[in-house]
Amino acid sequence: MSGRAHATGAHARHGRRRVGWRRVLFGDWNGAIRDPLDLIRLTFLAGAIVTLVTGYSEATFRLALTFAGTVAVRQLQLPRPFDLAFLLGMSLQAWGNTFHLFTSFSDYDLIVHFVLPLSVAPAVYIMLSRSEVVPDLAGGRTRPHHYLGVWLITFSVGFSIGALYEIYEYVADHLLGAHLLVGYSDTISDLADDALASALGGLLLVVWAQRGWATTRRVPAEMLPGGEQAPGHDA
After folding, report:
1. 146-200 pLDDT per residue, tens
2. DSSP character string of 213-229
3. Is 76 within 8 Å of 130 (Cβ atoms)?
């Protein structure tokens, strides 16, 4: 075998391995489970089943609700960074309550109240834009007041989510037996954290819009039949 043929064969094997790893991380595995992010979603369902069997009703309710929310967001075909961030926020709150991390670590509550609005608010904005309630990020709007509107709406959504979560904590503490550390000082601290995270989430979404990046989930072209980009999958 000549040196050129050997090099060509080695390059082909390297290319197959590269495509293989990209398929594991980014390709569509099948219709039910697309990629590793769907495995994260399934952990909430598994946790809900386990806690139901063990009689931990508050955790069952929370994990089942979290699973339903993540499955609903899956239908939005979010770009993977947004999807991953959303799942991270959901994981922190769901598993943190299930394993009592809020009471075990003093700063865990602040971490959740920062990550949750930061990750959820941009996803909600994209959902609203798909419903034509708010302008699409890819609508070609470049004037400063358009970006200000994107930031303001995202901030408002994130802060509202934080406020609703405070209400849920009160309900969980008084009706579901969650035994959370709920008080006036804690609420104010959490809301301040929510405001900061929501402002940052809005800023990140503005940067995303300015860069002109895709607002839908992308499957690499080599992962598709015939190596062509699928309709509805933006670059």
Report:
1. 889 999 999 999 999 889 888 877 787 777 666 666 677 888 899 999 999 999 9
2. --SS----GGGSGGG-P
3. yes
Copy the structure tokens of residue 89.
């926020």
Would you say 190 and 164 are in contact if contact means Cβ atoms under 8 Å apart?
no
- H or E element that contains 195: helix 184-211
- Percent helix, percent strand, percent coil in the chain, to nearest 5: 75, 0, 25
How many CB atoms are located within 10 Å of the residue 103 CB? Answer: 13
Q: Do residues 169 and 114 lie in contact, with contact meaning Cβ atoms separated by under 8 Å?
A: no
C-alpha to C-alpha distances, 177 to 53, 138, 172, 181, 194, nearest whole angstrom: 18, 45, 6, 12, 24
Q: Does the pTM of the predicted model rise above 0.90?
A: no
Q: Comparing C-alpha atoms, which of 161, 157, 145, 156 is closest to residue 206? A: 145
Residues 125, 147: Cα–Cα separation, whole Å: 13
Residue with structure tokens 């959303």? 86
Radius of gyration, alpha carbons of the chain: 21
Given a contact cutoff of 8 angstroms between Cβ atoms, the answer to whether 63 and 44 are in contact is: yes
Look at the chain and count its residues: 235
Residues 218/234, Cβ–Cβ less than 8 Å: yes
Per-residue confidence (pLDDT) for residue 12, from 0 to 100: 47
Residue 194 Cα to chain centre, angstroms? 16
Pair 68, 30: CB distance under 8 Å = no
Q: Cα–Cα distance between 73 and 85 in angstroms, integer?
A: 12
